Sequence to fold (201 residues):
Amino acid sequence: MRINLSKNQQELLLRYTQELYKWNKAYNLTAIRNPEAMLKLHILDSLSVVENLAKLKPKRIIDVGTGAGLPGFILAIMWPEIKVDLLDTNGKKTRFLNQCKHNLGLANVLVLNKRVEQHQPDQAYDIVTSRAFASISDMLAGCEQLVGEEGIFAAMKGQYPQAELDAMSKNYHLLNSTALSVPGVDATRHLLLIKKTIVKH
Fold:
């Protein structure tokens, strides 16, 4: 995956997985119960977007419908210098994230327990990520207030979502699509980068 992890980052990723495994028994955060499967299907899956998103040189990221913090919490571990907001409506999941933030000492994370439509940030985000959160059209409609003219929507999908892209508003265009390869995971994965279309007058 061409990612260099420091010893500290490796430890943080493993500690996050331990926390997820522990909390999942009571809080039902994910359908995946096995820690080894969590590493492949959640941690490695989230790490698979790091190389592509790093090229965008973001300073502020929001992960919408973050659930148990995927991929947002993983990106925060990878990029301690970048501000990462994690938004979800589910109180159990945001409680888990706040506890994780505290236990792992991640100062660059802010957890938001609210609907995306209610979130009006003081400053635009560089990247809005989502992992199987909603259809592309719903994502763009709900999150349009989160980015400025240069902001990028990064949607993590399974199969290439041609029908969703065909239904996308003309106010947006697909910048790039990358087929992701996740070690140990047989399923198809895609990362779609979408941007607002700027109309020149």
The beta strands are 60-64, 83-88, 109-113, 125-131, 147-157, 172-180, 189-196. The chain has one domain: 7-196.
